[in-house]
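EI: anyone free to look at a 300-residue chain?
SC: sure, send it
EI:
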Amino acid sequence: MTIILYSIGTLGVLGLIYGLGLAFASKKFHVHVDPKIEEINEILPGVNCGACGHPGCSAYAEAVVLKNEDIDKCAPGGDEVIKHIAEIMGMEASSADKKIAVIHCQSGGKNNTFFRYKYQGIATCKAAILISGGPNLCNYGCVYQNDCIAACKFDAIHLNDNGMRIVDKEKCTGCSACVVACPRNLIELVSSKKRVHVLCTSHDKGAVSRKLCGNKTACIGCMLCLKKCPKDAIEMQDNLAVINYDKCINCGLCADVCPTSAIFDPLKEVRAKKKAEAKAKAEAAKKKLEEKENNVSKEV
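SC: here you go
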């Protein structure tokens, strides 16, 4: 009995000593955390995507408070998060220019790509390109192993019926995870205000790129887009047309003259329809005028 009481007493004393030691250490080595950091961290999405340039949301919150980091770097959070951070920091909020991922390639699917061999290895793009540069004949195009889809935490990239990787503009947050994941550097973050894009990255000469592209939508370096652009927003870089988005005004004239549809503009068909309607209307008016003149001639 004495031994038991002694043991209990010893443990009690040791517990008291250690407790006092921990209490002293917590006060002695206490690191003050600015409450603003915790407030900002609570309103951040918490996806730790790295779009802000920091390893996680908490690191970005610290950078905003302690290092005066810009408050508009949280792509997933958008304007709502910027507004809340501005309120916490006592700053004026400004709207962020939302960026979305653009995949500069229209191949990649089994329905629109020519292959040099049937790939049966590890199902990642990085693994596929290590074997003779990839299974598809175009050495610049998508290798269809879906690394971008796997990297996206927001379910913003899907396959369409033709096997192309399509970015959902509403879901895309511009986090850049897909940009990092693509070993062919096919994906770029572009302002959501820009709608005209060159969907090709081939630097082969025209005849070669047209032959290797499964759906014949490769840039062939004809330079018609350069001649048509009113703002000199397009330049040729090693046989490939590249748009300078800072100069581009979304006129879409380059897409209208592109013979292979390598340049995409969602309003191209709308313009073509209006042009056809205007032409039909002009022809109808001309015909009506000719009929009127013929009737006058007969009366005379």
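EI: The chain is about 40% helix and 10% strand.
SC: 👍
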